[in-house]
Amino acid sequence: MATVFRIDFVDKYNDDIWLVKLLLSSEDNKLLKELDTYLKAEIKTNTTEVDLGHFLLAMHEYDRASHYCKLVLDDLPANHDLTCRCYNIIGECYLWKENYDLAQKNYEMALKHCDLASAAVTYNNLGLVYKRKGSWTLSYQYFEKSLEIYSITRKPDDPLIATTLNNLSHILLHTETYDKALSNLDKVLDIRLKQLPLAHPLVGATYSLLGDAYLWNGDYKTAMYNYDKPQPSILVSLTQPAKDNYEMAIKCYSKSIELKLLSDSGDFNNLSTLHNNMGATYNRLGVYEMALSCFEKTDEINKKITPIKHLNIAACRLNVGRAYAIKFDNDSARQNYYQALHTFETCSETDTNRLLAITYFYVAELDELENDHANALKNYYLAKELGFKSLPSTHSSLLRYINGVERMIPHLLKETNQLEKSTT
């Protein structure tokens, strides 16, 4: 009892049996001891009827959790203190199942039965629903409402404030409000380092999101500096501000990976994403061997993920292709881009359109470099259309896609005129 193991791998043996290899974690692992102590302290002394629903939710048993909470609701008297919590759990079950309308409906029901403190949690949850729906303005407004209530009901370093600030930062990153996002994430990290053990998953996740923020801020600074230059982005100059952001991203990704490994985390999905993002950052810095080394680790980790995470595989192929493209190995780049496109098209995740847009944009750049202006125009146009579906209208990436289309039109007009002259 109470022995801690690390999951090494999970393999499907047949339809009914899965093989799980567990490794005994060291009893001297200080980080795990701290996490164990923290989690034990989190367990409430006084239990309620709703706790089982919460545990089922934590186990990803969404149907059972929502069914149980509905049974509890049937037995609760009107305006009971637990009614709000039941609706919030049911809403979160639907959120994880990507049924956003039902998630929203249950969160709105929760609001009708909330006190002030519980309303902050529910507003945060509604913000998550609207974020998943792509309603960024509404999402931002709900996160702001949550923070307003927390400022009254919680201390400034409360972990719940960190959670909502973290969620708000996602919206700021999406709208390229990077300075404010980085400021918020610094506050999130400060709170979590004070309130949580170092091995807690949220600490590593904060470093990971900080890495994303620095990476995208570097991309934004590069895009703005080279905005009016009539050439593919693969040929643009790397500015010092962009380089500084990329180097900070590397530090944050490295720290997140370190914490996951030290805590014996079996979260292969996040490890895969971290190595892939770090490789993408090395691509920007022109350190190709380090980038390819990161992508090799990503491929190794992806083999351990069950069921297969196609989005991770495609994202890695996209970045491997970019590494070859920067080295002007166009054939290898194109091969990896096409593999990424094929795999992305089989994915159902909400981020697929954004990643497909990037891939078509990169393919278009290869076409442009090879003076295949017709295919370049087609692929820039596909990137632009997918960008409109997944990005704000002022996003720098979307502006790059539009610029690509506009760059190709004069070339095609010139080639068409030359063809007409040659046939007359």
Binned, the helix content reads over 70%
| Strand/helix succession | EEHHHHHHHHHHHHHHHHHH
Q: Architecture of the domain at 350-416, according to CATH?
A: Up-down Bundle
Shape: globular
Largest sheet: 2 strands, antiparallel
Task: Give the oligomeric state of the chains in this entry, treating copies of one chain as homo and distinct chains as hetero.
Answer: single chain
Based on CA atoms alone, the radius of gyration comes out at: 24 Å
Contiguous uncertain segments of 5+ residues: none
By CATH reckoning, the class of the domain at 350-416 would read Mainly Alpha
What percent of residues are in strands? under 5%
Mean pLDDT, as a whole number? 89
Question: What would you call the structural class?
Answer: mainly alpha
Number of strands: 2
CATH topology of the domain at 350-416: Methane Monooxygenase Hydroxylase, Chain G, domain 1
Terminal CA distance: 88 Å
Pfam families: TPR_12
Keywords: Repeat, TPR repeat
TPR repeats: 120-153, 272-305
InterPro entries: TPR-like_helical_dom_sf, TPR_rpt
Structure, briefly:
The chain is mainly alpha-helical.
